[in-house]
């Protein structure tokens, strides 16, 4: 019997309509983004819709995702903006 494929975890930063940032984790970013924009995902983003993905990274385990999420949440706003800009620059080159 084939083993079920383990989910890949995504750590993401959303840019809210008011310009604030929200960080979270999920195994299905498209579904989670829909929940945020429907107002059913978090109290914070419910009042700040619409939201858009500003940054995403994939990690192997739930523990890795939780650690990365916490590390991002500890960053200053300037550092988060730099992280987002760095990824956007990399994606443009690809």
UniProtKB/TrEMBL annotation:
GIY-YIG domain boundaries: 7-82
Superkingdom assignment: Bacteria
CDD domains linked to this entry: GIY-YIG_UPF0213
Annotated coiled-coil segments of the chain: none
Sequence similarity: Belongs to the UPF0213 family.
Protein name (Swiss-Prot/TrEMBL): GIY-YIG domain-containing protein
Naturally occurring in which organism (per UniProt): Gemmata massiliana
